[in-house]
Structures are given as structure tokens and as C-alpha cells.
Amino acid sequence: MVKDNNKVIDKSKIKQKKRLCFFIFFLSLLVSQTVYGKADLTTIRQKNLDVQPLDVASSEDGNMIFILSLKELIIYSSETDQIISRSALDSAYDNISYSEKNKTLILTGKSSKSLRIIRVEQIHDISLSDLPFKGPSDAAVTLAVFDDYQ
User: Fold this and answer.
1) Number of H helices, E strands in the chain
2) What is the pLDDT of residue 121?
3) CA quadruple 131, 134, 137, 140: dihedral sign
4) Whose CB among 18, 73, 136, 141 lies 3.0–4.6 Å from 87's, allowing a Cys bridge?
5) 121, 90, 93: which is closest to 107 by C-alpha?
6) In the chain, which stretches have pLDDT less than 50?
7) Which H/E stretch holds residue 98?
8) Residue 139 pLDDT
9) 3-state SS class at 26
10) CA 81 → CA 11, 44, 71, 76, distances in Å?
11) CA-closest candidate to residue 67, choices 79, 91, 49, 90
């Protein structure tokens, strides 16, 4: 026991309180559990590919999915559930990302230390059958006029 300003302090009781605090602290670490919320996972679509994908990127709206394989870039349309484009690549690339702002694919290769930027421009086919036209039907340029707006 130690007297301090007319107070009697028992050092053994202080040590016991410290030990009890540490014990409660470590017990709370062991007993505490991480609580996770529930998640419902629903498969929207599943597609078997004929190549092994190395990396995947998606447009912001999710309509186009870009699949990078060993020697090929595949563009898949989630709207039509079809592969809309396949382009041959050299095997230097193993990572892909998509920039919605610039509409570009960014391909990088770790081992080859290479970078390739590809602009993605989606082409929409418009059926011109049974529509009036002027000039040859096999013209290099087609101009469509939609003049029925009110």
C-alpha cells in the first residue's frame, strides 16, 4: 500500500483492474462477429466462350462488354445477346479497361510494357428497304432524311 495525499492506494488492486480491462478487451475481440447484410445473386445471362478470357471491361450502361483473350478482342452486346465484333490482336496485352468519356478501350501489357488505345464507335444499321431514294442504290454515301417530324 502507498499513501498519496491522504489516500491509500493498493497497487495489487490497480493491477487487477488493468488485467480485467485487458481481458475484457481481448474477449470482446474474440467474441465480436462481423455482421453482413444479405445479398440476392441472380444470374441474368450465361454465355460460353470459345476463348479463354484474360480480362473484361464493360461500358458504363452495360450494353457492351469487352472481352480480352490471348490474341483477340471480342465485343459482346448484352442487348442482343450476341458477339458483335472480333478483332485479332498480338499477345502483348493482358489488361483492358474502358473510358466512357472518350469512348476508348485501353489495353496494357505487363510483360511487354505496352499500351494501346482503341476508339470504339458503335455502328447502327438502318434498314433502307422500301424507302424512297435518289441516285444509285450502291452509292458510297447514304443520306437519310427523316422529315415526318411534327
Assistant:
1) 1, 9
2) 86
3) negative
4) 73
5) 93
6) none
7) strand 95-99
8) 78
9) helix
10) 76, 11, 22, 7
11) 49
What are the DSSP calls for 50-90, one per residue? SS-EEEEEE-TTSSEEEEEESSEEEEEETTTTEEEEEEE--
Phi, psi of 34 (to 5 degrees): -80, 130
Q: What is the DSSP letter of 35?
A: -
Q: Look up residue 55 and give its three cell numbers.
A: 480480362
β-sheet with 104-109: strand ranges across: 95-99, 104-109, 114-119
Do 91 and 110 touch, CB atoms closer than 8 A?
no
| Grid cell listed for 84 | 458483335
* pLDDT for position 35: 65
Question: Contacts from 103-107 at CB under 8 Å and sequence distance 24+?
Answer: 105/57, 105/66, 105/73, 107/68, 107/73
Residue 126 is predicted with a pLDDT of 75
The label of the residue with cell 457492351 reads 64
Q: Which amino acid is at 30?
A: L
